[in-house]
Write a structure and sequence with these properties.
Blueprint: E1 4-7, E2 24-27, E3 32-36, E4 42-46, E5 49-51, E6 54-59, E7 61-63, E8 77-83, E9 85-92, E10 95-102, E11 108-114, E12 119-125, H1 128-131, E13 136-138, E14 140-141, H2 146-150, E15 165-168
Parallel strand pairs: 7-12
Antiparallel strand pairs: 1-2, 1-9, 3-4, 3-8, 5-6, 8-11, 9-10, 10-15, 11-12, 11-14, 12-13
């Protein structure tokens, strides 16, 4: 699952956006986000797709294993989320400890789906390195995988998640009000 992510630096990806880009170190469900649509054009949309059984229910993540069979996703198109990293929480007893996941010197691309009202991240079972933190992770794409994602021939087993950097961060990320570089700083033991 992916409940929060960051997008603060687009310099590692050549993209032209018409509106002013605002760095965000704590993007939460319901936020306005930047995605690439099926034409690889940047658009701003809300994070969350309304469930077809209730307008009050928003879906922020979709399992890759059931993506093609869930009725909620019948009228969606594929997209790509842009991120510098994402947060995941590890449960240790009664505590939930936040960890930041990122790739060194690369922008991250998450597989996603969208419709006119919102978008959600497609997830998969976590690879072993990430599974220590959480059982699910975003489906990660490389730029070279964009076409296979859009034409629905993507191999969900691409394993460059082993390149992931992961470390514990401050619990300040738990509040969406905290939106600063401090959120992604490694916690000193």
């Amino acid at each position: 699952m992916c409940g929060r992510f960051t997008l603060y630096d687009l310099s590692k990806f050549n993209i032209n956006i018409n509106n002013e880009f605002k760095p965000n170190f704590n993007i939460s469900p319901g936020s306005s986000i930047l995605i690439l649509n099926e034409n690889k054009l940047p658009i701003i949309i809300n994070w969350g797709i309304t469930a077809n059984w209730s307008e009050k229910v928003k879906i922020f993540n979709s399992r890759s294993e059931t993506l093609m069979v869930k009725k909620s996703f019948n009228n969606t198109k594929r997209c790509i989320f842009l991120a510098n990293g994402y947060y995941e929480w590890k449960r240790i007893g009664q505590n939930k400890i936040p960890f930041y996941h990122f790739l060194s010197d690369e922008i991250m691309f998450f597989a996603g789906i969208y419709n006119d009202y919102g978008a959600c991240i497609v997830t998969r079972e976590s690879y072993s390195k990430i599974n220590q933190i959480h059982s699910r992770q975003p489906v990660l794409l490389k730029y070279d995988n964009f076409n296979t994602w859009f034409d629905k021939t993507h191999d969900f087993e691409c394993q460059f998640s082993i390149e992931m950097n992961i470390y514990e961060v401050s619990k300040s990320v738990n509040s969406v009000k905290n939106n600063s570089f401090k959120n992604i700083q490694k916690l000193k033991n």
